Amino acid sequence: MNPATERARARAGARTRARGDSVIGERFALFAEVLLTGVWITVASLGIVTVPAAFAAGARHLRRRTTHQGGGLREYVRDVWTALRGGWLVGLAGWAAAGAVAVDVQAVRAGLPGGPLVGAVGPAALIGAAVAGLRAAAVWTPQETWRALLAAAARRTVLDPAGSFLLVGGAVLVGCCALTIAPLAVPALGAVAAAAVAVEERYRQRH
């Protein structure tokens, strides 16, 4: 074989391997970023009503990383504080709804008339609201209001059932992690935020 041809093939192979190594490195870096974001979300969620803001800031951080933009802990904290404007009301309403569903479930167990229907509708509505909240957080920006985000996310929750079921599966995964090995639930929250971002990107590309 011609030596020049051999050298050309060798250079092409080296470039291919370099690109492959680069892709693998980027994927591992993104995976590590997702796990780290889960830790940030957990810490920011300790305020209880700060859960929506924590997820919104986490999702925005992951969007920046996937588009190769800058951003770190300082930007995340800034986003959390910004998302809390109105976001704390969303968090308060969410916990109030969860409390109401818990009371309904207890009433069903106590033998409330019509209990099976109440016991099915309440948790289903709470799951739907949680999915809409995740989808709203996944596309949050400082220029958006939570009311507008939630209204649009509620429509997408219904119009995109496949994406909604994916988020439900992610939430179930976090719950299973918490029941088996509690510390695993911390980084898994980052995976839920990443799933919400992916679901919204998938919906955007299809529409």
**How many E strands?**
0
Report the mean per-residue pLDDT as an integer. 83
Number of domains: 1
Radius of gyration: 21 Å
In percent, how much strand structure appears in the residues?
A: under 5%
Structure annotation, total helices = 7
Largest sheet: none
**Proportion of helical residues:** over 70%
What structural class results from the helix and strand content?
mainly alpha
* Principal-axis shape: globular
Low-confidence sequence ranges: 6-14
What is the end-to-end distance? 52 Å
Write down the secondary-structure element order.
HHHHHHH
Describe this structure as you would to a colleague:
By secondary structure, this protein is mostly helical. The chain has one domain. The model is unreliable at 6-14 (pLDDT under 50). Helix 3 runs antiparallel to helix 4 (115-138), helix 4 crosses helix 5 and helix 4 packs across helix 7. The protein is built from seven helices and no strands. The radius of gyration is 21 Å and the shape is globular. The N and C termini lie far apart (52 Å). The longest helix has 42 residues, at 3-44. Helices cover 85% and strands 0% of the residues.
